[in-house]
Structures are given as structure tokens and as C-alpha cells.
Amino acid sequence: MAPIPTPPAEPQDNPDGYVGLDAAHAERLARRRGWTTVRALPPGAIITMEYRAGRLNFEVRDGRVSRAWRG
After folding, report:
1. Is residue 35 within 8 Å of 54, Cβ to Cβ?
2. 2-25 burial code (b ≥16 CB/10 A, e <16)
3. Cα-Cα end-to-end distance for the chain
């Protein structure tokens, strides 16, 4: 049986700190802080609920981050 892979460590970063930032600036900042995937979504977007280590999700309203969460 193959070993279970160990997920990469996530940045020690609080997603709430991105709320209110310009979406493009927030994405650049998140990547500099070590997030491997940054996903910007419109409000109410239908998304899958799988958790991906290293991914930061942004809900973007009028060009600004209105919500941010891991996975």
C-alpha cells in the first residue's frame, strides 16, 4: 500500500487580514506570504467544498475582498 502523502505546510497568515483590500493587491500579497493557490470568486459563486492545503479563497465584491478563507 502506498503511503499517505503529507500535505504542505500552510503559511501562518490570518485570512481576515485580506478583507477590505483591493483584490489584485491581496492576491500579490498572499502569494508573497506563501500561498500556492489564490482563488478569487464572485459573491454567491457555486464551488466545490474540498479542502486544498495551501489555497486561499477570496470572495470579491466591487474589486475588493469581502471575505477570505483557507482551503
Report:
1. yes
2. eeeeeeeeeeebebeebeebebee
3. 27
CB distance 49 to 69 below 8 Å: no
DSSP letters, the chain, are -PPPPPPPPPPS--GGGGTTSBHHHHHHHHHHTT-SEEEEE-TT--------TTEEEEEEETTEEEEEEE-
CA dihedral (29, 33, 39, 41) in degrees, to 10, reads -50
Closest C-alpha among 10, 50, 8 to residue 30: 10
**For the whole model, what pTM was predicted?**
0.85
For 18-48, how does the pLDDT look when each residue is reduced to its tens digit (9 = 90+)? 999 999 999 999 999 999 999 999 999 999 8
